[in-house]
Each structure stands twice: as C-alpha cells, then as structure tokens.
What does this fold into?
Amino acid sequence: MRSPVRVMSPGDGEEISDNTPLLQGAPQEEAAPVCCSARYNLAVLAFFGFFVLYALRVNLSVALVDMVDSNTTLADNRTSKECAEHSASSKALHNQMGKRYQWDAETQGWILGSFFYGYIITQIPGGYIASKVGGKLLLGFGILGTAVFTLFTPIAADFGVGALVVLRALEGLGEGVTFPAMHAMWSSWAPPLERSKLLSISYAGAQLGTVISLPLSGIICFYMNWTYVFYLFGIVGIIWFALWIWLVSDSPETHKSISHSEKEYILSSLKNQLSSRKTVPWIPMLKSLPLWAIVVAHFSYNWIFYTLLTLLPTYMKEILRFNVQENGILSAVPYFGCWLCMILSGQAADHLRAKWNFSTICVRRIFSLIGMIGPAVFLVAAGFIGCDYSLAVAFLTISTTLGGFCSSGFSINHLDIAPSTLLENGKLFSVSLLLSMYLVPFFSRCLPKVKCKTGPSMTMMDTETEGTNK
It folds into this structure.
C-alpha cells in the first residue's frame, strides 16, 4: 500500500492527503501524445534556455585561467609546486594575444564569487514577479540580460576589477529569477505523472551547458582569444531569447498551437491541485517541516555544486596543473555524467510512481538520499588522493554524477507539497534556493587563503602567500 503524499492545503496551509492521480486506484486521464506536444516543446526550449544560462555562468571560470598572468598566481601560491607538471607538449601553439591581468588569488576569488551577490538578491522577487508578469517574460528577459552583460565582459575587465565585479553581480541579478520563473511555469504545465520527466529534461540543460561551455571555452582560449568566449555565448543567448518569446506561452490556455486533447489532459490532471489563492501563507510555510527539509537539502547540495562549478577549473590549473585546453575538457567531464544521470533519473522516478506504484514521498526520499550521500562520500575521498590525477578526475566525476539524482528528489519536491499556483511555487522555490546561495560568494572569496593539510602520505596544500610562515 502506498503512503499518501502530504501537501499544504490551499486554504489554511495545513497538510492534507494528496488525492491526485499519483495515488494507486485513483482515476487517471489518458495521457496526450508526447511527440510534438506543447508541453514537451516547452521542456526542450527550457532545456536550451538553461543550457545557455549555465554556459554564460561558467565561461568565466575557464576564461579567467587565461586572463590572469600565471606569474602572478605562482608568486602568491605555493600549492602549484607540489604536483608535478604532466601536460604533454602540444604541437599547436597556445594563442597569447589576449590581454593578461595582474590579479592575485584573492582578487580572483572576488571576481568568481561576485556573480552570487546579484544572484541571491533576485530569488524572492523572482517568485513574486513571475506571478505578476508570467514566467515566460521573466525567464526570457533574465537570460537576455545576462547574455547582453556577458558581451561587455572584456570591456569591464579593461576598466578594472571593480567594474568586472559589478558586471558579474548584474549577471547574477538576471539569472537569479530564472529557476523560480521556470518552476512557476511548470506548476501550470506539468501533469503530476510526467513531472519528474519534464522538469528533469528542462533542468538537464544546465548540466549540458556546463559540459559544452567548459571545454569549448578552453579551446577558444587556447587557439583564439579569451574575449571570444564571451562574445560567442552572449550572441547564442540573444538568439535563444528570440525563439523563446516566439514559441512559448505561460499556460496551456494561452498557447496558440496546443491541441485540444493535450490542453484538456493537462488541465484535468491539475484540476485537483490548482488553487485560486492570491496570497502566500507565510506562517504555515515557516512551520512546515517538509519545507525546511527541502531548504536544508537544497542548501547542502548547492553548497557543493556551486563551489565546484565556480572553482573546479582553478583547482585543475593550480593543483593538478592542467593547461587551459585540458582544463576545460576535464572540468566538463563531471557535469556530463550529471547530465546523463538527470535525464535517466527523471525517467526512472516517474516509472517507479506510474508502473511500480511507489509513493511520491518514497521516490523523492530515495533519490535525494542517493544524490546527497553518494557525492559526499566521493568528494571527501577526493581530498585524500594527493596528486593522483586519474583518481582526482574519477572521484569528482562520480561525485557530481550521483548528484544528478537530486533532480528527481528534493529539487522538484516544491511542486509536490505546495498548491499549484504561480505565486506559491515560485516563492517556495525562491526561499530554499536563496538560503542555499547565501554563503557561496563568501566561500569563493576566502578559499585562496585557506590552508589545507592532508595525511602523512598525502600532499600538503598551502595556498597562503609565499613568505607568510617562513
């Protein structure tokens, strides 16, 4: 017997049993065809939107490796001398035309972390604005703004560190609204039994964007000039925006080309979850243990995810001593695994619920546990392998790959426990994401000054400045 899923009542915020078709024996509407359907077209366009979003976010992590004068970094950091140089000599000459900047490790930390200062500001407003203007416009203009600002990155770098930090913070403002906006849209588009698949497809674009952006940025830096990294991805973002505005609608009712059968299927499957409530029950939400479980899980997962996303290329360069071309490729490998895991886990989660009669809460718990414990184990193990390059890349890849299970765990649990309204789902997602983002920029800024000591058989990693402890 499947245990009932608990959701917040749209009237008073109290928990009630979920009587949606997720439960065994409940009447289920016949699913509309998948091929060429409006809901899967939305998922594909959202996929490419998050592809662009993360490409714009992570390209600086690789480009910064080539933007900084390596002599400056070596003077500040003794860690890079611990692991032996191992890169095979390349027949192709590394392009050296790009301008180099004298930025020390702490300055690089400020630059990499500045994105999140803007990112955390628009989390809560993102859910609110989505309820006013719709997720379509909010998501579209959020990515468009980030793309336009990205085009100005080389100019900001020439103006100085302050200008670049401000520009990256502005990019964060634009990206901060995207996830709440997308969640708000799916609350009107995703039938319960297809929720894991649709959201996994759309958010998997973020991983693939990382997979493509990291090595492509490395190749561009190696053979061309680091400035072209920002020009290329900025233009791609503008092209995506035009397609998004043209083809997407906020809800099935306003879509111009959706079939009647698909519209009826979506609306009928959501009719028991729709709420006309216009205000948010803040007090009951703050007292909700399921909500706080999501917040804690979101905080913990994002701490690891965004730290690696921001600093993995720096680790590859400063510790493992890969050149910029190898750096981009190897930094992308973990996120390719995560992308595959997200796609497969979404299919598996909905299969377990629809065919094997697993309860929604059971599926969310299993996938969250795998996606949290697995990465933790291998990430801790990666700290005890010293300069073993193969094990370092393998452990980081396994860790990030297993994290993909969370996409069908806590990551979409907001839609399971909250009434299906734009306002509440967008804000509920914003609350958990906001808290999980708050400390990342501080960690990025302070990391270059952290002193790490491993066991007696391992390499000692000391990133304090030369001469501090002589």
Notes: DSSP finds 19 helices and four strands in the chain. The first helix runs from residue 38 to 67. Residues 26 and 330 are 48 Å apart (CA to CA). Confidence is low (pLDDT under 50) at residues 1-27, 421-425, 441-470.
